[in-house]
């Protein structure tokens, strides 16, 4: 089986261009740009790195909001406030 050389930068550019077009189409459809909100419980370095990686991918930058909640004892409610 022959090897296939992948060009990661070119592929990333294609994905970003497609995402930009989808965002433009959705913005036209709903009348405002879509947004992504992340709620994180503070104290986990791996989670912080993950949130930063999400932030780097969001197009455009103003469409991202991250909030960090202080860790207090046991977590008994979900992010939407309902008991599970």
Give a summary of the structure in a few sentences:
The chain is of the alpha+beta class.
Overview of this protein structure:
The protein contains 2 helices and 2 strands. It is α+β, with helices and mostly antiparallel strands and 84 residues long. It has one domain. It has a two-stranded parallel ribbon with strand order 1-2. The model has no long low-confidence stretch (mean pLDDT 80).
Outline: flat
Number of domains as seen in the coordinates = 1
Order of helices and strands: HEHE
Percent of residues in helices comes to: 40-55%
pLDDT < 50 runs, ≥5 residues: none
Number of H/I helices: 2
Within the largest sheet, what's the order of strands?
Answer: 1-2
Name its key features.
single chain, 84 residues, alpha+beta, two-stranded parallel sheet, 2 helices, 2 strands, 43% helix, flat
Topology (elements, then pairings):
Layout: H1 8-30, E1 36-41, H2 45-57, E2 64-69
Parallel strand pairs: 1-2
